[in-house]
Amino acid sequence: MNRPRARVATALATAALLLLAAAPARADDTPGLRIQLEQKIRLVSTLIADSPAAQRIRSSGNLEAMAHLDEGRVHHALATDLLARGDLSGARSAVDEALQHLSKARRLVPDGPARQAAARQRYEQLLASLERLMDAWRARADIHADDDGQDLAAAQGFVGMARQQAQEGRLDDANRSLAQAERHVLAGMNRTLHATTLDYTLRSTSPAEEFQNELARHRGFVDLLPLAVRDLRPSAEARVLIDRYGEASRALEAQALAQFKAGETTQALESLRNATLYLQRALSAAGLAAPPPTGITP
Q: Which of 8, 98, 20, 80 is nearest to 51 (CA)?
């Protein structure tokens, strides 16, 4: 059987197993139960012996996945033996156990194209987030200061490396490079937020442009928050505050966007700035000590 047909057969087998599991025979319907068990056992045999997933697991070198595959094989053999002895209940338990081990093994060694697609999606999300953060940081960083200049240069270097690795199809390496870039961006944004004075002067020629500038600033904080939570690992109590402030910020941002769409630019700016202040409180709770926001008492 060629590989495309093998994959189709495996998919059909998996679908059949799900249907069998979803509609078990009645306990007193012994002939029907035996037929279902025979079908399940044959399908498990195919999944263990001939499926692309089993071949992928065996060639992966993943010891835990191979152990689950071996356990699946043992429980399949037990199910076959119990069915031959007429122990339908035991055979059903054994074949279900075999399926559970096979499922665990497959999750540990995901399909190559699916894994690549997930890595590509993560790369694109990380890169977009980092680019927004770096734009926001450049607007406020003192690039002549040693620390900011070094961190910014390092972050740009890692981003460039990640782009090259992604072009070569090395997406896991690219994501690791982006993670390194994130650390430098986080360090730089942390210094910026610790500064006693921050230049948030918006050089805008109209209220609409001022709103867009403020929105870009706000979304820079939005992108920064998950980095801070992941890398600084705030306590459970802090996470409660972060969630609370984040929820309030999202509600205010939605309100600001609705007001701006309705032509209420002044009110929209006020709502958006309040949304940003809530984000600053969330960042403070995460461990990034932003200057104390004013005008709100959450």
A: 8
